[in-house]
Write a structure and sequence with these properties.
The complex is a heterodimer of chains A (264) and B (354). Chain A has 264 residues and is of the alpha/beta class. Helix content of chain A is 35%, strand content 28%. In chain A, strands 6-7-8-3-9-10 form a six-stranded mixed sheet, sandwiched between helices. In chain A, strands 2-1-4-5 form a four-stranded antiparallel sheet, covered by helices on one side. Chain A has a two-stranded antiparallel sheet with strand order 11-12. The longest helix of chain A has 16 residues. Chain B has a single domain, classed as ABC transporter involved in vitamin B12 uptake, BtuC (Orthogonal Bundle). Chain B has 14 helices and no strands. Chain B is globular and about 65 Å long. Classes of the chains: A alpha/beta (264), B mainly alpha (354). At the A-B interface, helix 2, strand 6, helix 3, helix 4 and helix 5 of A face helix 1, helix 9 and helix 10 of B.
Chain lengths: 264, 354
C-alpha cells in the first residue's frame, strides 16, 4: 500500500521565531500516505512547531516535498487544498456557529458548490450535527475541539496535521476520533498527529516519530520506539513498558520517579 | 441564539440554517428601514418644524414646502442628516473591520488613537493658521486631520511590522499613540490663542454642523469606494474569526488581509473625523450590536454594523437638537454620553453569558 514517492519528505527543516531559531536542520523519515504517524516528545520538544511547519502555517527553511510537489513553491490556495490543519489553540469569543465554521473552511479554501450540504455531512461524520447552530463561544472545550477537527477534515485533504486533537475529549470521544482519523488515513491521507498520551499513540498510530529538543531521537513502529530506554532518555522518566494485546501500559518505577521529583 | 431545539439530523440542520439566514437578511432589511425612518425624523427635527412626511414629499419632488422651509430643508437639514448617516455608516464599518482583523472587541478608530491623531492634525492646522488662497481654511483643517489619521495607522502598522508583533501589540501601540496624540493636543491647546482654542475645542467634540454640500460627496464617495472591497472580503474576514493559524491553513494571506482591512478602516475613520470631528463609541458599539443581531458571518455582520452605525449617529443627531431647545450640542458629547452606559451594558451582558 505504501509508496515512498507518495510520502511527505522532510529534510533539513529549519524554523525561526524572529531571531530565535527553534528548529535547525531537522530531517524526518518519509511520512507515508495511508498511515497515521504520531509525533511524540516531552513539553518544549518542538512538536507543535514542527507540525505547523509541515502544514506550512509558519514559514520554514529546508525541503518539504509531497509526491513530486515542492510544498514550499505551491500557491497558498493549492496548498490549502492538499493540507488540513488543526491547531492546538481553539478560537475564543466567536459567535460563529459550528456549521458556519465548516462552511467557511470549505469556502475559504475556494470551494463554492453545495457548501451547506457538505458541511452538514462533515458534522454528521463526527456525530455533532446537534451542535450545527450553536455558537462556538457557547460550547464546551471538547465540543469546540470536535468542531475544530471538522474544519480540518472538511475538504478531504491528502495530508492531515492534528495538534493534540483529543486533549479535551472524554474517553469515548477520544477513541471515536482516533478511529475516524485512522479511517481517513486508510483512505489514502498522510496523517501526522501530535500526542502526549503514549498509550493512545501505540494503539492508533502506525508509526511514531520521537522528538527531543527539536531533534529526531528515534522513529519506527510504536512497539519498537516506546521503550523504557526511550522514556528515560527523552522524558527523563523511569518506567516499565508492558504490552497486553494491542495495548501498551507504562508503569512508573515509583522509587526512581519519586527520586526524580524530589532530588535529595 | 435561534431559540430552537438542537437539530436531530442533517436535514433539520440544513433547514434551520436556511431559516437563520432568512432571519438575518430580514433583520438587515429592518435595520435599513429603521435608518430611513430615523433619517426622516432627523430632517423634521429642529426649531422650524417640518413634518417628516412633508420633508419626504419635498425630497421626492411630489410636493413643495414654503420657500423658507425649502431652504432650511435643502441647505441646512439635509446635508446634516445625510452626513449623520454617512459618518455613522463609515464608523460602523470601520469598527467592524478593525475588531475582526485585530481580534479585539475593543478595537475601533477611537480606541486605536486614530481619532486623537486626527484631532491633533486639525488642531495644528487651526493654530498654525495654515492657508492657501485657492483652498478654504476648513478644507485644510480637514485635510490635515485626514493626513494625521492615516499617518497614525501607518505608523502603528510599521511599528508592528518592525517588531514582528501580534495583534495584541498592535492594539497597545494604538492606545499608546492615542495618549501621545492627546498629550500633544493639550500642549497645542495650552499654547493656542483664545480664538484658536475655541475652534479646537469645538472641533474635537465632533459636530455635524460643519456638513455642507461641498464635503458630502467626498464622504459618500469614500464610503461607496471602500464598502464593496470590505464586502468582497467578507469570507476571508469571517475565516479570520477562527484564528490566525486556521485562516493561514485555509490558504489566506492574513498579513495582507489585515493590512488592507486596516487601510480601509482608517480611510473611513479619517474621512469621518476630518469632516465632523471626533465622534467616539459608534465604531465600538455598532459592531457589538450587529454581532448580537446577525452573528459573525461577515456577509451579514458587515452590512449590519454599517447600518447600526448609521442608525446610532442619525438618532444622536436628533438628540443633539432636542436636549437643549434652540441649541445644537456637539454630537460627540451625545454619542459618548449614550455610548458609555451602552458599553457598560454590553460588557455586563457578555460577562453574564460566559
Amino acid at each position: 500500500m505504501e509508496k515512498v514517492q507518495d510520502a511527505l519528505a522532510v529534510s533539513r527543516l529549519g524554523v525561526a521565531y524572529g531571531r530565535r531559531r527553534v528548529v535547525h536542520d531537522l530531517s524526518l523519515p518519509p511520512i507515508a500516505r495511508g498511515e497515521v504517524t504520531a509525533l511524540i516528545g516531552p513539553n518544549g520538544a518542538g512538536k507543535s512547531t514542527v507540525l505547523k511547519a509541515l502544514a506550512r502555517v509558519i514559514a520554514s527553511e529546508g525541503e518539504l516535498r509531497f509526491g513530486g510537489t515542492d510544498l514550499r513553491q505551491l500557491a497558498p490556495r493549492r496548498r490549502a487544498a492538499l493540507i488540513g490543519f488543526m491547531p492546538q489553540a481553539l478560537p475564543q469569543g466567536t459567535e460563529l456557529t459550528a456549521l458556519e465554521s465548516v462552511v467557511i473552511a470549505l469556502r475559504a479554501g475556494g470551494d463554492a458548490d453545495g457548501l451547506d450540504r457538505r458541511a452538514v455531512a462533515v458534522l454528521e461524520r463526527l456525530g455533532i450535527v446537534d451542535l450545527a447552530l450553536t455558537p462556538l463561544d457557547r460550547m464546551s472545550g471538547g465540543e469546540r475541539q470536535l468542531v475544530s477537527l471538522a474544519q480540518a477534515i472538511a475538504r478531504d485533504p491528502a495530508m492531515l496535521f492534528l495538534d493534540e486533537p483529543t486533549s479535551a475529549l472524554d474517553l469515548a470521544h477520544v477513541h471515536r476520533v482516533m478511529g475516524l482519523v485512522r479511517a481517513i488515513a486508510r483512505k489514502g491521507a498522510a496523517v501526522v498527529i501530535v500526542l502526549h498520551d503514549l498509550a493512545l499513540a501505540s494503539q492508533w498510530a502506525d508509526r511514531t516519530i520521537v522528538l527531543k529538543s527539536a531533534r529526531l531521537h528515534s522513529h519506527g513502529a510504536p512497539r519498537e520506539v516506546i521503550t523504557p530506554r526511550m522514556l528515560a532518555e527523552v522524558y527523563g522518566f523511569a518506567a516499565r513498558v508492558e504490552h497486553v494485546g494491542d495495548n501498551l501500559f507504562i508503569v512508573p518505577d515509583h522509587a526512581a520517579a519519586g527520586a526524580a521529583r524530589f532530588p535529595s | 441564539m435561534t431559540g430552537a431545539a438542537a437539530p436531530a439530523d442533517g436535514g433539520q440542520a440544513l433547514a434551520a440554517y436556511a431559516r437563520l439566514r432568512r432571519r438575518r437578511l430580514l433583520l438587515i432589511l429592518l435595520l435599513a428601514a429603521a435608518v430611513a425612518c430615523v433619517f426622516l425624523l432627523d430632517l423634521g427635527t429642529g426649531p422650524a418644524g417640518i413634518p417628516p412626511l412633508d420633508a419626504l414629499g419635498s425630497l421626492t419632488g411630489l410636493s413643495t414646502l414654503p420657500p423658507a422651509q425649502e431652504v432650511i430643508l435643502w441647505q441646512l437639514r439635509l446635508p446634516v442628516a445625510l452626513m449623520a448617516v454617512l459618518v455613522g455608516a463609515s464608523l460602523g464599518l470601520a469598527g467592524a473591520e478593525m475588531q475582526t482583523v485585530l481580534a479585539n472587541p475593543l478595537a475601533e478608530p477611537f480606541t486605536l488613537g486614530v481619532s486623537n491623531a486626527a484631532a491633533l492634525g486639525a488642531a495644528l492646522a487651526i493654530v498654525a493658521g495654515l492657508g492657501a488662497s485657492w483652498l478654504p481654511a476648513n478644507w485644510i483643517v480637514a485635510g490635515n486631520a485626514f493626513l494625521f489619521a492615516v499617518g497614525s495607522l501607518l505608523l502603528i502598522q510599521l511599528l508592528a511590522r518592525v517588531s514582528d508583533a501580534g495583534t495584541e501589540t498592535l492594539v497597545l501601540f494604538g492606545i499608546a499613540l492615542g495618549f501621545t496624540a492627546s498629550a500633544v493636543l493639550w500642549l497645542v491647546q495650552y499654547m493656542a490663542s483664545q480664538d484658536a482654542l475655541q475652534q479646537i475645542v469645538f472641533w474635537s467634540m465632533g459636530s455635524l454642523a460643519r456638513a455642507d454640500w461641498t464635503v458630502l460627496p467626498i464622504a459618500a464617495a469614500v464610503l461607496c469606494a471602500v464598502a464593496p472591497f470590505s464586502f468582497a472580503a467578507a469570507w476571508k474576514l469571517t475565516a479570520l474569526r477562527l484564528g490566525e493559524e486556521r485562516a493561514t491553513s485555509f490558504g489566506l494571506d492574513t498579513r495582507r488581509l489585515r493590512l488592507l482591512a486596516l487601510l480601509r478602516a482608517s480611510l473611513l475613520a479619517a474621512i469621518s473625523v476630518a469632516f465632523v470631528g471626533v465622534i467616539g463609541f459608534v465604531g465600538l458599539v455598532a459592531p457589538h450590536v450587529a454581532r448580537m443581531l446577525v452573528g459573525e458571518d461577515h456577509r451579514f455582520f458587515l452590512p449590519a454594523s454599517l447600518l447600526t452605525g448609521a442608525l446610532v449617529v442619525s438618532a444622536a443627531s436628533i438628540a443633539t437638537k432636542l436636549v437643549v431647545p434652540g441649541l445644537m450640542i456637539p454630537i460627540g458629547i451625545v454619542t459618548a454620553l449614550v455610548g458609555l452606559p451602552g458599553f457598560v451594558w454590553l460588557i455586563l451582558r457578555r460577562h453574564r453569558r460566559t
